[in-house]
Specification:
The protein is an alpha/beta fold. The chain has a single domain, classed as Dehydroquinase, class II (Rossmann fold, 3-Layer(aba) Sandwich), CATH 3.40.50. Helices cover 39% and strands 17% of the residues. A five-stranded parallel beta sheet has the order 2-1-3-4-5, sandwiched between helices. β3, α4 and β4 form a beta-alpha-beta unit. α2 runs parallel beside α5 and α3 packs parallel to α4. It starts with a strand and ends with a helix. The chain binds 1,3,4-trihydroxy-5-OXO-cyclohexanecarboxylic acid. The site of 1,3,4-trihydroxy-5-OXO-cyclohexanecarboxylic acid has 10 residues, from loops.
Amino acid sequence: MSRLVYVLNGPNLNLLGKRQPHIYGHVTLADVEAECRELAGELKLDLRFHQSNREYEIIDWIHAAREEAGGIVINPAAFTHTSVAILDALNTFEPPVVEVHISNVHKREAFRHHSYVSLRADGVIAGFGTQGYSLALQRVARLIDEKAA
Ligand code: DQA
């Protein structure tokens, strides 16, 4: 089982830290990537960390992950609530998938309560701020370890 994990981020997350900080906080996506890389080192995972505002790029990364990755952590951002295409792509990927939302989407507008990605995700983390990424990586590492055992 590959110890390479893709961490994928959807639209507007490039503005993390500047965008609606009362909801998403002041931590930037570069900070999140640095934290993920540090933790990945401890968990002996390799990481590919990407963000895009374009749906097709996220789909292409999921296809690339199919070839080499042992897990995916994904914050699909607004595509969570709209994208059958990202769900279909994730359904072609067999290893663990953990969905992350920085905010507690269930405390927010009704349109954020439905996630297409949750139909595939093995676990969902919401409302833990950017710490959710670390929790998701820990979970993926555990699932990889369990499969290898
Ligand atoms: C988000 C929640 C989504 O509803 C929203 O569109 C985002 C970010 C989160 O991380 O809390 O862009 O995925």
